[in-house]
């Protein structure tokens, strides 16, 4: 028997929840209380929407579309902290510098980097890669040498292939010694685009 | 152990918890209660030992927030001695206040059972599982709660 009382109880389900507003209120309070360990936001770019993830230490991950954002957030939950929320304002500085880079107005990034996702030799390779200037290129063997192991150029290639912060850590500037483009996480088209943007390759 | 990104908890459970809280504290205070529930959960989250039943964990926190709210309300006078009514919150939506006031005053088990039956629209077997009681006890709590509401709540419009 459904009577008037039961109808009135059921009517409460009509009150809608504004999920987006709730998410942003929680993210703002989390940031204020120091509980936001990983914040992320989306940066539009000529290479598609990039996902920018930052910790209080700095930029920890930058990813191309198609890398699967859910899988990446899950990986960060495991390796950094599960306190992850979308908080675009926390990624503003990174997005501003990316915009300037793609617009041709910036040749070096000035951003704190959180290197937590890379360890050991891979970390040395990526730090060496971060020192290659805009408009220059290097080789896998050269970055391996710079990282302290001239013969470990295959390991250097692997480290570059799993670079968690492409573009800002410019693994696109590392090419085969013979002049071939080598590989690229985001796809060779994107590597070519970045090298053209920097004036290394003609278009 | 793999804890999912916190944001996923919000996305997966916010709607259901919101309904639960509407049933527990009424539509006006449900929003605040929901936010407080997630903030408490966020503080404790990295210390959680397993991710087996995150939903039950969130419900426990929400239940606690609802109980706090109801207690606070009980200490607050509804109207003062001169008969001057306190000003209602300007943003209050039109709601069935008389009903929710009485739902909030039900004994905890009856309130939980009534809310799960009519707000979350759960079957008695599910209510029993969630409350850790028998199906028969779940039915009894719901009907006792309804009986009491019929007695206490003035007829609608």
Task: Describe the protein.
The complex is a heterodimer of chains A (203) and B (157). Chain A is an alpha/beta fold and 203 residues long. Chain A has 2 domains: 20-91, Double Stranded RNA Binding Domain (2-Layer Sandwich), CATH 3.30.160; 120-197, Orthogonal Bundle (Arc Repressor Mutant, subunit A). Helices cover 39% and strands 12% of the residues of chain A. Chain A is built from 8 helices and 6 strands, in the order H-H-E-E-E-H-E-H-H-E-H-H-E-H. Chain A has helices at 4-10, 19-32, 69-79, 92-102, 120-130, 140-146, 153-161, 188-197; strands at 38-43, 50-55, 58-63, 84-86, 138-139, 174-175. In chain A, strands 3-2-1-4 form a 4-stranded mixed sheet, sandwiched between helices. In chain A, a hairpin with a 6-residue loop joins strand 1 (38-43) and strand 2. The longest helix of chain A is centred in the first third of the chain and has 14 residues, at 19-32. In chain A, 33% of the residues are buried. Helix content of chain B is 68%, strand content 0%. Chain B is mainly α. Chain B has helices spanning 6-25, 27-44, 54-75, 97-105, 108-118, 124-131, 135-152. The interface between A and B is large, with 33 and 42 residues.
Q: Supply the CATH architecture of the largest domain in chain A.
A: Orthogonal Bundle
Largest beta-sheet characterization of chain B = none
Helices and strands of chain B: which structural class?
mainly alpha
Total tally of structural domains of chain A: 2
By CATH, the architecture of the largest domain in chain B is named Orthogonal Bundle
Name of the CATH homologous superfamily of the largest domain in chain B: RNA polymerase sigma factor, region 2, helix turn helix motif
Q: Rounded to an integer, what's the Rg of chain A over CA atoms?
A: 22 Å
Level of helix content of chain A?
25-40%
Estimated helix fraction of chain B: 55-70%
The overall pLDDT average of chain B reads: 82
Query: What is the overall silhouette of chain B?
Result: globular
User: In angstroms, what separates the terminal alpha carbons of chain B?
Assistant: 54 Å
**CATH fold label of the largest domain in chain A:** Arc Repressor Mutant, subunit A
Number of E strands of chain B: 0
Count of the separate structural domains of chain B: 2
How much strand of chain B?
under 5%
